[in-house]
TrEMBL record, chain A:
GO terms for molecular function: 4 iron, 4 sulfur cluster binding; L-serine ammonia-lyase activity; metal ion binding. It comes from Paenibacillus kyungheensis. Pfam families: ACT, SDH_beta. InterPro entries: ACT-like_dom_sf (IPR045865), ACT_dom (IPR002912), ASB_dom_sf (IPR029009), Fe-S_L-Ser (IPR051318), Fe-S_L-Ser_bsu (IPR004643), Ser_deHydtase_bsu (IPR005131). This is L-serine deaminase. Pathway: Carbohydrate biosynthesis; gluconeogenesis. It catalyses: L-serine = pyruvate + NH4(+). It comes from the Bacteria. Residues 148-221 form the ACT domain. The gene is sdaAB.
TrEMBL record, chain B:
The gene is sdaAA. One of its GO terms (biological process) is gluconeogenesis. Belongs to the iron-sulfur dependent L-serine dehydratase family. It catalyses: L-serine = pyruvate + NH4(+). The keyword Metal-binding applies. Residues 16-276 form the Serine dehydratase-like alpha subunit domain. It comes from the Bacteria. Its cofactor is [4Fe-4S] cluster. GO terms for molecular function: 4 iron, 4 sulfur cluster binding; L-serine ammonia-lyase activity; metal ion binding. Residues 263-297 are annotated as: Disordered. Its EC number is 4.3.1.17. Residues 283-297 have a biased composition (Basic and acidic residues). This is L-serine dehydratase. The keyword DNA damage does not apply.
């Protein structure tokens, strides 16, 4: 079942005009912010399909920027997000993407803060619901409906066991998991959707595990 | 969730003497692990947002961001207050409220997607006007929203609630079906009557194309929300009167997906067909493009 519960249907509370182009976009922007782990200084947004064609009329651009400022879908400040980003000195560019894309409403967001860079690509699939398709170039899926732990690591035996054991010790329950690696023994990404938000101490424990290079929590609740 | 189809809902409700709302709340608690109290609180908060949007839309001048639409909710509301309407004041009030929420949406105001933003006027239009008319309290309205949610859950998972996927029937049509079934339950009808109302409502929107002028959620979306609210009330009346959907409602849901898939992409939210490509639709699109270019320069 694509839609999991009643609030996927009634809800979200949002600022208009389009659940796909506005609410979904805000959530995708917010996912990029959380994945970077801080407010970005530079942002590049690449829009595909219907997003690219009609983003200006739907305020998709404002919603994406609002999400990057960590605004939720119903934040009254969304219509003024561009001015606020400007005030904070965040530079943002919008481009139209070319080539293949997996969904009519698709966006790629590249965020930077100092030397740190993160990239999120995802689709807005209707009713404000989203689907994450890529994190930092890895093909990993996430729904954004549950808190998501994204761990970058080297592909090696036992890494996943270490991560899941850490979660289990913290009494966190896994609802969904996806792994992608660039090559055998190469760089890898694991995303885990959890029933509850892991706190900073769990994140720190995971960061200390062998082979783990980076970890972030994307929590869109 | 224990139910996948509308028929499942009726069966489970009958077996356990539950209302559709009670079943939905129980399943939501099981699925999410969130307490019943918190689940009900979230829906109560959502209903508050719906009421605020109705109020805003009929008292304030809402002009859309594009400047294309606005003010129709107040026009219809004033007309209704004049007391001389063609469809009766109750239907006209529901229509005014639905237009109100849809106009608030187009002006980037706060709304609840039910099931989407493009169809966000129908359920509040029907619910808030019915609450005033029948004197229901908010607790009952919130129960009604859970009933609507259960119906929408089945439609979304077996068909679609996205205009890009299934045309306007998937957005406005789904909302009408959800509102119709919920009204039947709130007015004391059986789950079976509610499900027939859903089927009757959906049958009447099959094939409805999504053809937004300039790609915006305004023309014809706002008007379709107004008329959709009236359709929902009418379908609820048919259900309450004992009219049965000759084609079982689940089959109507399934065929809605097939109809949506066989629609050309021109008629699925791309603004490349339907009203968007009439001479006036094209003129409006050009005008907006020109203005945007000017603002950019």
């Amino acid at each position: 079942m694509r839609f999991k519960n009643v609030f996927n249907i009634i809800g979200p509370a949002m600022v208009g005009p389009s659940s796909s182009h506005t609410a979904g976009a805000a959530r995708l922007g917010r996912a990029a912010r959380h994945f970077l782990g801080k407010c970005p200084e530079h942002v590049q947004i690449i829009l595909y399909g219907s997003f690219a064609e009609t983003y200006w009329g739907h305020g998709t651009d404002l919603a994406l920027v609002g999400g990057l400022l960590d605004y939720d879908t119903d934040d009254d400040r969304l219509p003024d997000a561009a001015e606020e980003a400007d005030r904070q000195g965040i530079t943002i560019s919008f481009d139209k993407g070319t080539g293949n894309y997996p969904h009519p409403n698709f966006v790629r967001i590249i965020v930077q803060h100092g030397e740190e860079r993160a990239e999120v690509a995802g689709a807005s699939i209707g009713g404000g619901n989203i689907e994450i398709h890529e994190l930092n170039g890895f093909d990993v899926r996430g729904s954004g409906q549950y808190p998501m732990l994204a761990v970058e690591h080297m592909d090696s035996k036992g890494v996943l066991a270490d991560i899941t054991r850490t979660l289990s010790d913290a009494e966190l329950n896994i609802g969904f998991m996806d792994v992608d690696r660039k090559a055998r023994s190469g760089e890898a990404m694991t995303v885990i959707e959890l029933d509850t938000v892991p706190d900073q101490s769990v994140l720190n424990q995971i960061l200390q595990l062998p082979y783990v290079t980076r970890a972030a929590v994307i929590d869109l609740k | 969730m224990q139910f996948r189809t509308l028929k499942d809902i009726v069966r489970l409700c009958e077996e356990r003497s539950l209302t559709i709302a009670e079943l939905m709340i129980e399943e939501q608690v099981k699925e999410t692990g969130v307490s019943e109290q918190d689940v009900i609180q979230q829906m109560t908060d959502y209903y508050q947002v719906m009421k605020e949007a109705v109020e805003r839309g009929i008292t304030e001048d809402t002009v859309s961001r594009s400047g294309l639409t606005g003010g129709d909710a107040r026009r219809v509301h004033d007309y209704m207050l004049s007391g001389d309407t063609s469809s009766g004041s109750d239907a006209t009030r529901a229509m005014a409220y639905a237009l109100a929420v849809s106009e608030v949406n187009a002006s980037m105001g706060r709304i609840i997607a039910t099931p989407t933003a493009g169809s966000c006027g129908i359920i509040p239009g029907v619910f808030v006007s019915s609450q005033e008319r029948f004197g229901w309290d908010d607790t009952q309205m919130v129960q009604g929203l859970f009933a609507a949610g259960a119906i929408g859950y089945v439609i979304a998972n077996n068909s679609s609630i996205s205009g890009a996927e299934g045309g306007c029937q998937a957005e406005v049509g789904s909302a009408i079906g959800m509102a119709a079934g919920a009204v039947v339950e709130m007015r004391g009808g059986t789950p079976e009557q509610a499900m027939h109302a859903v089927g009757l409502a959906l049958k009447n929107t099959l094939g409805l194309i999504c053809d937004p002028v300039a790609g915006l959620v305004e023309i014809p979306c706002i008007v379709r929300n107004g008329l959709g609210a009236v359709n929902a009330l009418a379908a609820a009346d048919m259900g309450l009167a004992g009219v049965r959907s000759a084609i079982p409602s689940d089959e109507v849901v399934d065929v809605m997906l097939q109809v949506g898939r066989s629609m050309p992409s021109e008629h699925r939210e791309t603004a490349r067909g339907g009203l968007a490509q009439t001479p006036t639709g094209r003129k409006i699109t050009e005008e907006l493009r020109r203005r945007r270019q000017e603002n950019k320069n």
